[in-house]
């Protein structure tokens, strides 16, 4: 799915700002908030999660629908165009109404969708745009949750993932046009390298008149044409191509044009394209044929007040911090991040593990930590066939959105599912196929393994290309006892290496809650000293296991969690930075290690 863009043939109107806002207190259909002006005087910022913007607990804790509304004018010169409202994210379900009419609905809170407006409003006319957003999580949504209706009729939301269920329009809303006669509907670019030649295999899908000619041009960073081709499918060769490298991005513009018989451009759309290869070979992860060691983070889109709202100041600042500390990569834990973040990672040369929102598919963790009644994860009551269909859809939508990003080197189809529980294999086998079929570039795939599903218990690891492990030895296991933790951690890693001698292993989470400023002579848990000792211990083990191809610590920054998580004080504190991005003492320690790793692995972006 192409991100809307302005070009010589397309216009783009940004609809961000403050929108009228109201809770839907009862039934959406009964209240029909879209049939008139919204009640009350609240206004909510877009993009932002609404939960922490207002101080009313009824809004913070609301379970169900809310409505956003504003007036929009279709530009008067859009007379030979089709036009759409693009909602970049409505968490978790969104409906778009143009005046009184429902024009689009979408389930899945972190991927975009479109509503076509063309036949409903004429160029130059104004319309009332209402977007209703629902934040309920059930056993058939991804992520899943359980919804309870209490005796007083109030809904109560339970969910089993460890981050706050921020809701609303957290990413931009756009109105955009494409030429009506014929337009570029989708573009797929698959980069390859042969010697010093860069190859872009491409496929351009056309909407409207399909007999129109497709012409593609590749421009370098100086806007010089370095390759051309004709036809909707084909390849472009670039002599002496500059590669996209970790820490040293280089992006070509792949421009797809539709031309009429006289050669006039009818539509034009450009995709930033990095030329690089990705391959898993034995226990190595190769980027451009060279072994790559991941350093970096599991992260969250999370800041005070705006929740999961995309914010370019935080985005740039976070990338600055990652650069400073020597992080060459991150995982979009635990959902697809804003498209702007993916584009920025492309430009900054940051390597990304791109994850679906399939988190919380684990009632083993839930019953342990949240005292939920015991229930089987893979069962008609929780993750069933409908859940799997929603999960499959979340994989397809993620790949459709992000397939062209050079930064994406690995797809993660789920975080910490109950992969040691009966039924896991039956649930995941079809999803592995969905993921492999979805990506035309055939990137490797992984899922993120939970600490209970050790090498002798996990039922699904053999189906994936990289063994991604979240381990908390010294924190959740052998709490505070780093000597016992080290022995147990090393023994487990050796077990994985023995069982899967041909697969790379990657630490996708390891961490310890640390209260910034809490100092201790005896390095007790929660202190800054403990966090340092904990990471030192983990790194000693990483350095002993050759099959480990990377380490992403949990978490980049402290982040908000559900109020049900009584063991969290104002959120999860495993950040290397605080929620407002101040470094904890560990930051300098990690920087030292990662700068050295990056210099040693000697790719062009490493600091020398
Ligand atoms: C892991 C989860 C992550 C949590 C983390 C923790 O993948 O979402 O926040 O543990 O407990 O189980 O801090």
UniProtKB/TrEMBL annotation:
UniProt organism field: Sporothrix stenoceras
Keywords per UniProt: Glycosidase, Hydrolase
PANTHER family: BETA-GLUCURONIDASE (PTHR10066)
Keyword Hydrolase in record: yes
Family: Belongs to the glycosyl hydrolase 2 family.
Lineage: Eukaryota, Fungi, Dikarya, Ascomycota, Pezizomycotina
Annotated Glycosyl hydrolases family 2 sugar binding domain residues: 14-179
EC supergroup of this enzyme: hydrolase
Every Glycoside hydrolase family 2 catalytic domain range: 278-598
Name used for this protein in its record: Beta-glucuronidase
EC number: 3.2.1.31
Stretches assigned to the Glycoside hydrolase family 2 immunoglobulin-like beta-sandwich domain: 184-276
